[in-house]
Amino acid sequence: MKPGRCARMLAGVAALAAGVALAQPGTPPDLAFGAFQRGYFITALQEAMKRLDANPKDAVAMTLMGELTHDGAAVKRNEAEAARWYRLAAELGDREGQFALGLMLLRGAEGVARDRAEAHHWFELAAAQGQAGALYNLGVMALEGEAGAKADYAKAAEYFRKGAENGNADAAYSFAVLERQGQGVPANLVDAAHWLKVAADGGNIAGQVEYAIMLFNGEGVAPDPAGAAKLFMKAAARDNPIAQDRLAHLYVLGRGVPQSLVDAAVMRQLAEDHGLKDSPLDAELAGLTAEQRKAVDEALRKRNAFASPVIQE
Q1: 10 in helix, strand or coil?
Q2: How many CB atoms lie within 10 A of CB 8?
Q3: Three-state secondary structure of 37-88
Q4: CB atoms within 10 A of CB 85
Q5: Helices 189-201 and 169-181, interaxial angle, to 10°?
Q6: pLDDT tens for residues 115-144?
Q7: How far apart are CA 213 and CA 235, in angstroms?
Q8: Residues 243, 208: contact at Cβ < 8 Å?
Q9: 109 by DSSP, 3-state: which?
Q10: Which among 8, 123, 237, 311 is placed 20 to 30 Å from 27, CA to CA?
Q11: Which pTM was predicted?
C-alpha cells in the first residue's frame, strides 16, 4: 500500500477546529458546566446567571452564556448576542471566549462581520494560554498565508506541534503530515507515525487512515496488518471511502483480517458509492458466485448506509 499524496493529506488541514472546551483543565467542577455537559441547558443557564449576579466579571460564565446563545440551548439562538458574550469574556482574558470569538470572526455570522485579522488576534491570545483549537487554527492560517504572503510551513508546524501537545487531534494529524513530508520541519517518519497515532486515538479520521497505511507498510513503525485493519474498520464505520477501499483490499488478501470476498465486495461497494474508482479491485471481485453476490446484496441491505464490522479492542 502506498501512502496518499501530500495534497490529499493536506486537505484535512484546511478544516477549522470548532467547539469550546468549557470545562478547562485544572478548574473545579461547578453546577453550571456540569449541567451544560449533561445537556441540562435550563439549569446551566440558571446557574450561569447566578454566577454573573454574584460576580458581573465572571468571564467563564460569560463564555457559557455565549455557548448557550450560540447553540440556541435554553434560549433563542442569536449569533450576534453570542458574539457579545464571547467578546465580554475574551476581553476579560478567558481563553475559551477568545477562541470562540475568533471562530465567529473568522467565519462570519449573523450580525458578525468576517474579520480575519481580528480573529488572528484573539486566536493568538487564546493560544498563549494553551488553547489547543486556537493553536490549530493559527497553524491553518499560517498555511493559507497572511495578507497575500506565501504559506509559512515552519510557523504552521510550530503551531500544530503545540496544539498537538495540548491534546488537539487535528493539530497532531497536521503536524504529522508536515513532518512526514519534511515541510517546515525536518522529515522524521518515526515521529510522524507517533503523531498520527495520537491523531488516530483522538478520533481524527484522516489520522486513522494514514496511520493504518503506515502500520500496514511498516513505515516509521513495526508492521502490523491486524492493527491497520482495525483502524481501517474504525474509519470505514465513519463512512470514509478510502478506508472502505483499503479494507476491501485486505479482505481480498486475507491480511490482518480473515479472507472474505463477500466482505471485500461490501466494502468496495460502499467506497464506490462515494465515487472512488479502483479498477484492479473491481477485477479481483468480478468472479463472485451468484451465492456470494446474494450475500453481498443482503449485507448492504441490512446496513442502511453502513454499520461497522465488530471491532475487538
Answers
A1: helix
A2: 13
A3: HHCCHHHHHHHHHHHHHHCCCCHHHHHHHHHHHHHCCCCCCCHHHHHHHHHH
A4: 26
A5: 160
A6: 999 999 999 999 999 999 999 999 999 999
A7: 12
A8: yes
A9: strand
A10: 123
A11: 0.85
